[in-house]
Structure formats: structure tokens, C-alpha cells
ABC transporter ATP-binding protein (Deinococcus cavernae), 311 residues
Amino acid sequence: MIELVHLEKRYGDALAVRDLSVTFPDGAITALLGPSGCGKTTTLRMINRLIEPTSGQVLLGGQDTRNLRPEVLRRGIGYVIQQIGLFPHLSVAQNVATVPDLLGKDRRATARRVDELLQLVGLDPATFREKRPAQLSGGQAQRVGVARALAADPPVLLMDEPFGALDPIGREALQTAFRQIQRQLGKTVVMVTHDIDEALRLADHIALMNAGQLEQFGSPDDLVFRPASAFVSQFLGEDIVLRRLAAVPVTRFVQPGPAIGLPGVPADVSARTALSLMLQEHVDTLAVEQDGQPLGTVTWDDLRKGRTCPS
Ligand SMILES: Nc1ncnc2c1ncn2[C@@H]1O[C@H](COP(=O)(O)OP(=O)(O)OP(=O)(O)O)[C@@H](O)[C@H]1O
């Protein structure tokens, strides 16, 4: 658990981060989201003390990070940035294995893990293992950066726009792969992004910042369906409810109940498709069906208000 307590960073007269108190839960991805200059990177870098706070505290597992030597602190915190800084004279495999090698881990086990991680981030080990960073595209280098951070196996991972240099398709593929890896390994991740869709797709929790302050902390659904302020709605944009519904399956909204006589919708469509069908059929309730069998019903009101059934 990472707790920020009345955290502040002042540059001259300007407060880059002001009175920020928020907790990032263990084993989850939290996105720091907000417009350019709102203090996301400053906040992230205060966690591993690359930036020293002006006041306030950062507690890591209950321990005040000011009481830890920065190098000891950073051993338990991976850090992935857009300009990854791979070692140019080392191969991809050696780059990924940097920390395990430094720690004197078994070479054969490390080599196996490196191959596994390359595979996980979508780089064929046989093709990429021996390449040098200069032979990689920006997106491939970024994938190596993610693999390297994971190879060190830190419980906490800080990421600053980690998927920024990728084209949209590569980006979505790496996001999906990363999400699976994070679930598997149970890492605590704090990720800076200004990309709303990335935050909605990847994060369990979103901390939306504005001018150095926290506007809202909550789940993607909290922000979309229950925005805490006009700023939150404005930042997410008018069409955000529809975009969110397009990204989630209709089954998340199914309630048990009789579905006789209602128009049906297959269980594998998005919530947005169900909403469109309601408009088309002039009804406010649909039967959701799987293999011809009714699963239950979904209502207009639940879709519009984001009232999902507990999963
Ligand atoms: N070293 C510095 N000296 C003075 N001001 C700084 C310094 N670093 C950051 N700032 C200011 O602090 C504020 C927050 O910057 P920060 O980089 O944390 O924002 P951000 O939300 O990460 O922005 P972006 O999305 O553009 O990267 C900005 O107004 C920035 O100009």
C-alpha cells in the first residue's frame, strides 16, 4: 500500500502538487490521470524520491520513505519511463537480465525468465534476444523496458507514460499483455498517463488530478458514471458514458429475472450495442441470451447509470 499524506511539492512560488492525500492499494493498477502540467510526474517521482517532497509524507507498507536510504527504497520499486534508457552496448537479453545478474541470481533460471518475459511483452525471444537497442524500433525498445522492470521482480512498479511511444495497435496489445502479467504477478502499479482510454482500460483505480490537486479517486466506473465535479465530467468528455459502455460486455449489467416476451440480445455484445437495440426496439428492458437460453435482463436505467451487478 502506498499512502500519500498531505504531500506537497513547491517550485519557487508555484505549488506543483498541493495537499495530496490518497492511498494506492496493493496488487492493483492505479492511474494518475490529468491534463499536462497537473503534477502527475512530480507525484510519481516523489514516491521513489527522485523528487524530494517539500512537505507531507509517503508511506510504503506503513513505513515513512524518508527513513529509508533512496537506493534501498528504489530496490523495491521498479521504474519504467518512456525514454527507457537501455544500455546500448548490451544485448536485449542482457538488458532485461540487468537486475537479476546484479543480484547474482542463477544464470540459467534468469535466461529462462528473460525468454518468458520477452514472449509476454510480444517479442519473439529467438529473434530479439541477441539484438542491440540500436536495432530496435521505439515500440520494441519500450517493450524491452517493461520486460526489464518486471525481471527485477519489485513489488511496486512506477510507470510514466510507459506505452507512449507505441502505435495504437501495438499499444493496445502491450496494454492487454501488461494487464495479464500484472494480474498474474500481483504487482502494485502506479502509472502516469494523460490518455483517458488507457486509464479506463488498464486501471483498477484512477486518481484524477487538476492543478496539483486531487479531483477524484475511484474506479473507472466511479469517474464515468459518478463524476465528483464538473472538472471530472469535462475532462472525460461528453461521450464518455457511451465509450465506456462500448468497452464493457452487456453481461456486467445482467440481473436475474423473467425475460419472457422481451426482445433478446446475445451475451457477447457490448453494453453499448444493447443500449442501441433498446433505442431501435423502443423498449427499456432486454433479455440477454447465451446459446438460446435466457441469462436474465438488462435495463436502460442500469446501463445509463452504470449500475453493474457485483462480479
Ligand atoms: N524542476 C522544476 N522546476 C520548476 N517547475 C517544475 C519543475 N518540474 C515540474 N515543474 C512544474 O510543476 C508542474 C507539474 O509538472 P509535472 O511534470 O508533474 O506535470 P505532469 O502532469 O506530469 O505533466 P505532463 O503530462 O505534461 O508530463 C508544472 O507546472 C511544471 O511546469
